[in-house]
């Protein structure tokens, strides 16, 4: 596996304004337009920039021309890549002014990244460093590098090899990464470092982080604003991990009836935290409503009431009687320390209204003492609402994380609640099939009228049918009513369609038919057989897949050095199967596969997840070959099809696919399974 080399810009200051993902995208746009035009000049820039997603709907070509005329009066001036980048920044800066403010900040609450504003918050940096020093001080590998001095840049240097990133992810969601897959030598070569960073970024997506516009090269360069933005998301997930009904059933005390409980289940964890805080403040006699972790808490009064209610043994009226906000904040932190809450923020951070740090502070208070009693009768009655079977819960998790990884504008906290108005589904459809959504027919949230939600969902079903999804007797109202089976069946087809389109796009330069499920199975079997391995899969339902050996051999076939076979078990016992399954997921992510399944999906041989896993490995493999093809000579390419995407795909004829899967089971994996789901869904109350 070759190490990744990013797009290089000679001007360091200009280079720092973009992430590697953005540079690659803009470089591709620049090159394609340069090929189309005999001579790429300033006069050609307005229509080219107007077509970019960043400016679509914000500027037309005439507006962009007026912006560029000031800096580039000569329309005949030839444009090189750096001029193209500077023109992009000029228009982007005008867009920020037009919208009325800066788009940039690293934040727990707003997880998107930006290239407009790169200033970092030193208080947040110090807080995250303290968090790392505290939670990872006993880690066998990292303890020799800790504690980190927050006054230096050692934190950003330590992140560069990916180990710290992986360790933090496992702190946030234990077991996400099989630590056997992390390269932990003292000195890593570029391949090993890139593997760790790839594993970290793909695993961050798999726990709910938004990593759009962040590449491995950005972390390897230790870009502070990007590193802090990513680390803040991971720490947020760790701090808010208990704010759900499965881990803290007593949260049901915050509501009075079933309808309120359903609404609470659909809230983002930080919203649940606010609700919890207001629950105790109301009981303590605090008359205001706290609606944010910034301006509403900066005077310290809410904290004083909250801590007095939760820890009366440490309460003091002196905190409330103090008039100076900074002094009051100091007393609040002293009181919190008596509850064993570690000090990750200063009195100044409270007074300044630092949203990230105040959120972390309140979450820490919740972890140490939530003040909720175990009312078993009330918890039991509400728990009856949470009767989803294990497989349904796993599928909801998988689709939620996948949707959030696409970079849609709306973040999904609960698939069954957040998708019912149809808007998010339209956003996803527009991502995976650009141009498929007619936004003039869409109703943007908040949507109060039920029929408007139905209109959105009807549009979703219409587009689904155009994409040839199996949607027999399914109507938009089924989604609005929250029919879980139908919604999961739709999302599965959407995920499968996306994967097959990615594969199809890789073979756009070759002849052949559409990629099918059987093609993917056949490719995987051929790949394993070609390197002398013995495992073969009869279908994606083959129970032998539960041992994990087939997928480990497939991973070895596409990249010989990625699997350490000394760590692989025979896969005969349940414990051995779990070890292999956990290792498979981490190795695939380390390779570059963006996947969201769990070890249980492999152990139980969930055919849908088996298909996506195999397709993801196939996509990565063909992607590498496609990149290699551009660098090999015609003679080398003519020696055979083994190193050719065209050869790999064109050899997958339907006859051959049928041979390797005589029953045709996997060809019907989607249509039959989803028709069953649709039939079951229509025969069951939502």
Summarize it:
By secondary structure, the protein is mainly α.
Key descriptive features of the protein:
mainly alpha, 34 helices, Actin-binding Protein, T-fimbrin, domain 1, 686 residues, 5 domains
Notes on the structure:
By secondary structure, this protein is an all-alpha fold. The chain folds into 5 domains: 12-98; 122-240, Calponin-like domain (Actin-binding Protein, T-fimbrin, domain 1), CATH 1.10.418; 249-383, Calponin-like domain (Actin-binding Protein, T-fimbrin, domain 1, Orthogonal Bundle); 388-506, Actin-binding Protein, T-fimbrin, domain 1 (Orthogonal Bundle); 517-629, Calponin-like domain (Actin-binding Protein, T-fimbrin, domain 1). Helix content is 56%, strand content 0%. The longest helix is centred in the C-terminal third of the chain and has 23 residues, at 484-506. The protein is globular. The relative contact order is 0.07.
Task: Tell me the layout of helices and strands.
Blueprint: H1 12-15, H2 20-36, H3 45-50, H4 61-71, H5 81-99, H6 122-135, H7 154-159, H8 163-172, H9 190-206, H10 216-220, H11 224-239, H12 258-265, H13 269-283, H14 301-310, H15 317-321, H16 325-337, H17 347-352, H18 355-368, H19 376-383, H20 390-405, H21 415-418, H22 423-432, H23 450-466, H24 476-480, H25 484-506, H26 517-530, H27 549-558, H28 574-591, H29 599-603, H30 607-629, H31 634-638, H32 645-650, H33 654-660, H34 669-682
Helix pairs in contact: 4-5, 6-11, 8-9, 8-11, 9-28, 11-18, 13-14, 14-16, 20-25, 22-23, 25-30, 25-34, 26-27, 26-30, 26-33, 27-28, 27-30
